[in-house]
Amino acid sequence: MSAAEEWSDEEQSLLEQALAQFAGISDVKEKWKAVSKAVGSRNARACAERFKACREVALRLKQQEAEGGQDDGKAAGAEAEAARDKAEREEAEAQAAQEEAEAEAKAEAEAAREAAEAETRDAERQRADAKFEAARKEAKEKDAQEKAEREEAAAQQAKGGNKKAAEKSPANEQKAVVDAGGVEEEVVMDEGQRRAADMRRQIEANREKLRLRDEEEAKKKAKKAAQDEEAAKAAQAAKKAAEAKLAKDKKALEEAKAAKAQVPGSVPAGSKGTGKGSGPAGYGSQAAVAGKGATSTQPAGKGGLAGKGGSATSQPVAEPKAPTKPSASSPEYKGWGQKPAAASGPSPAAGPKAAAGPKAGAGPKAAAPQAPQGPVPDSWDD
């Protein structure tokens, strides 16, 4: 039996002692861990396999002894059954220990993998930091180089401007005139002084530009304000002229109405005639011609066309116009062409009664009223 040969007598003895010692532990994993610690040189899995092999040997021996005798066989069978049950339990314990060992190995492998991944992430982060630092350093160097180039270009530009100014000067040198108590002295300026002088001149020029711009804006604002004021004045004057013209036209219209009302023969609105004739003498029927609401131009006195004192000038009577027939859709079409019903009172066409003549025998009778001249309309609706 190879499994038994691999174990020494001391290890076998330690295993048996450990099994007897920790037989009361119900937890299989804890039991085999304790057995492995007691043996010392074997792990839990090896101890379980050794126990399994020993159990199989014991079962075979018991089976052989059972075949030798009936009594011995029964006893051996019972023992074998018990040993088999125990072996099954121990086998289950060994399997559990094996699963635990596999789980531990798997956990260790997972931990190692996580550690490797963490190291990889750290390395990548370090590489990214190094790359960022290199890019930042490169950008900083580039900025410094560009700044140096700008300063050099500015210096060259200032130098060129100073050179042009020196060429324009009579002495062909960069000099400044200093007035000290009325005494002018020429002082040769260095590069820094020339640049400062150029800067001052540029500042003064900018100030002058700003001043001129402000003055121009102020002039524009003043001009716009004056234009707005003139426009407002013109609008006010136009408004006043329109009001004056309207008042003048209104006054002229009123004067025209008043003059028209004063024309002889016109009948002012609301006036009422007397109905009396104005012949110089005698009685007449001319009063009927000047009906109600009209005035007569004859001199005062009773008379008529054939009265005493001769003939009298009669009031001209306007010739009535024939009414125009309205259209069928007009509201005035209703009743067109129908004669009005006879009124109970006196006819308006008769005019006022003639003035009472003198007593019988005093003079001739008054003439009959004359009919109005012109065509008589068919309808009096209008």
UniProtKB/TrEMBL annotation:
<feature type="region of interest" description="Disordered">
    <location>
        <begin position="64"/>
        <end position="382"/>
    </location>
</feature>
<feature type="compositionally biased region" description="Basic and acidic residues">
    <location>
        <begin position="240"/>
        <end position="258"/>
    </location>
</feature>
<dbReference type="InterPro" id="IPR009057">
    <property type="entry name" value="Homeodomain-like_sf"/>
</dbReference>
<feature type="compositionally biased region" description="Gly residues">
    <location>
        <begin position="301"/>
        <end position="310"/>
    </location>
</feature>
<protein>
    <recommendedName>
        <fullName>Myb-like domain-containing protein</fullName>
    </recommendedName>
</protein>
<feature type="compositionally biased region" description="Gly residues">
    <location>
        <begin position="272"/>
        <end position="282"/>
    </location>
</feature>
<feature type="compositionally biased region" description="Low complexity">
    <location>
        <begin position="318"/>
        <end position="373"/>
    </location>
</feature>
<feature type="domain" description="Myb-like">
    <location>
        <begin position="7"/>
        <end position="52"/>
    </location>
</feature>
<dbReference type="Pfam" id="PF00249">
    <property type="entry name" value="Myb_DNA-binding"/>
</dbReference>
<feature type="compositionally biased region" description="Basic and acidic residues">
    <location>
        <begin position="103"/>
        <end position="153"/>
    </location>
</feature>
<dbReference type="InterPro" id="IPR001005">
    <property type="entry name" value="SANT/Myb"/>
</dbReference>
<feature type="compositionally biased region" description="Basic and acidic residues">
    <location>
        <begin position="191"/>
        <end position="232"/>
    </location>
</feature>
